[in-house]
Design brief:
The chain has 160 residues and is of the alpha+beta class. It folds into 2 domains: 87 residues; 60 residues, no CATH class. It contains 4 helices and 9 strands. It has a 3-stranded antiparallel β-sheet with strand order 1-5-4, with helices on one face. Strands 2-3 form a two-stranded antiparallel ribbon. Strand 6 and strand 7 form a beta hairpin. It comes from Flavobacterium amnicola. This is ABC transporter ATPase.
């Protein structure tokens, strides 16, 4: 059951999938429709999940579930991963590789492998004040407070 993202409790569980490239406007229209359809029908053991989604910067797909109503279970999480894999295949993007870093580079958003990001930190092309996307946040509250943060305030800090 779809609920507007802003109406979910702050302790709702989230999952963030980042694309290795920005989606085009045409792709965004298709993806938005597919994601909304998926969330509207997302269930755990036959019980509808109180769920939502956000798509940020034409690059991040964020799922959220109010675990107080019905917890996402292994099967429902597997269904969401399968859905994300289908998007990967259809749009020839990488959404599941957690070994990549996405960060703000001026007004643009850059996506690099972890190895390249570490090299950029060593070369001082990025600094502790570079805004990174901390996709390890687990709740809407953490997302609101700690998703877009200076690298020195996230797990990326170990590179500086």
């Amino acid at each position: 059951m779809y609920i507007p993202f802003e109406n979910l409790p702050l302790e709702s569980r989230i999952w963030i999938y980042q694309s290795n490239r920005k989606f085009s406007d045409e792709e965004m229209a298709e993806i938005e429709s597919a994601v909304k359809n998926f969330v509207e029908n997302w269930a755990a053991h036959g019980t509808s999940l109180e769920a939502s989604y956000l798509i940020k910067y034409n690059r991040f797909i964020i799922f959220a579930v109010n675990q107080e109503v019905q917890a996402a279970t292994g099967c429902s999480i597997d269904a969401s991963v399968q859905f994300i894999q289908e998007l990967e295949q259809k749009y020839q993007v990488d959404l599941l590789d957690k070994m990549n870093v996405t960060f703000k580079n001026g007004e643009f958003i850059a996506h690099k492998s972890l190895i390249d990001f570490k090299k950029m930190a060593k070369d001082k092309a990025v600094t502790g004040s570079t805004i990174v996307f901390n996709n390890l946040v687990n709740t809407i509250e953490e997302f609101n407070e700690a998703w877009e943060v200076p690298a020195e305030e996230s797990w990326h800090s170990r590179f500086f």
